[in-house]
Amino acid sequence: MQDRAKSEGFVAFGIAPGRLAPAAGVRLRQWLREGLHGDMLWMESRADERANPDILWPEVKSVVMLGMSYAPPQDPMVLADQDTRARISVYAQGRDYHDVVKGALKRLAGWLAHEADAGVKVFVDTAPVMEKALAQSAGLGWQGKHSNVVSREHGSWLFLGAIYTTAELEPALPAEDSCGSCRLCQDICPTNAFPAPYRLDARRCISYLTIEHKGPIDLELRPLMGNHIYGCDDCLAVCPWNKFAESAAAHKAFLPRAELVAPQIADLLTLDDAAFRQLFSGSPIKRIGRDRFVRNVLIAAGNGTDAGLIAKIEVLLADPAPVVRGAAIWALGRLSPEAFAQRRQDLFAVEQDASVLAEWAAYDMNGSVRVRTT
Asked: Rounded distance, CA 115 to CA 8, Å?
């Protein structure tokens, strides 16, 4: 079966039992109780199913865990100091991994169902499945201190997929944690999203803030986000195990599209819905929609020094979407206190949305933060 998986583009393969150790569920529930999942309420609603495969599907006997590499051809950190350029997470620079991995899983699962005369179900990141814990149980790698799977062969660059099956397959030995005393992933995090090793506070994570969070982003966190506009690779990129990951192993579907590697912030600020959909056709970025995306771009603009963006930002003060107008207020205040003061006089009295009014009210007339908003 491993050879068959390889022919479908999977570089990592292992088999886990159909039941996780109780400790995995204990950690999940503690994480949820502490509210570290933020607005991801769907994680609460199906926590029991997530905690163990046999609760989601009582007939499951084994879980085939698989990984596709998306190791990048260049260091994702090279854009960290280029404030006119936007940073898009490596995983989103190619085709949507959900489609690619799920297609390969379905073909492999169909083959397994025929060969073993067994029932199968496939999952890629959209069902209540603890892929990372299962990957460790199946020997693919261990959950690192950044909470993602780390592989000895592929570093921190694996997309995971799972095949639940009624077939009783020989399980692999679980992977052992090999992080040692290293804490590079924790130290590099711009927003200090790791309260402890192996624990992520999603509410502070740039990936969560730019992708999952729908409303205005906390004022405290915006300056820390730099030029990240979709996801964040910092904690993954510094992992020492990446030295064994070869970009040549990456699935060709995940090769970065040139226009998404280092896009100009100025160009992204002008996207309307149609242009957004066209640019991100086939990309996971399309899922968050134009408004949330432009909100992210405005925060990146406000974290830069390019005064040439001011006119484009001023246009967005009249955007139909409140989340865009609010982010435009913040960006304008950061780049031009003078323009901010003038536009506040023009727009504050006519604004109807409470969240946007809160943005205007959060600043002194010189653009300095006066109060904290969430």
From this structure: 16
Residue range 326-367, pLDDT digits in tens: 999 999 999 999 999 999 999 999 999 999 999 999 865 444
- pTM, to two decimals: 0.92
Count of CB atoms situated within 10 Å of the CB of 247: 15
pLDDT tens figures, 115-174:
999 999 999 987 778 999 999 999 999 999 999 999 999 999 999 999 999 999 999 999
Catalytic annotation, pick one of 54, 125, 218, 291:
125
346 catalytic per annotation: no
DSSP string, 17-59: ESS--HHHHHHHHHHHHTTTTTT-THHHHTHHHHH-HHHH-TT
Q: Which amino acid is at 138?
A: A
Residue 249 CA: distances (Å) to CA of 68, 107, 163: 9, 20, 22
Distance of alpha carbon 253 from alpha carbon 331, whole angstroms: 35
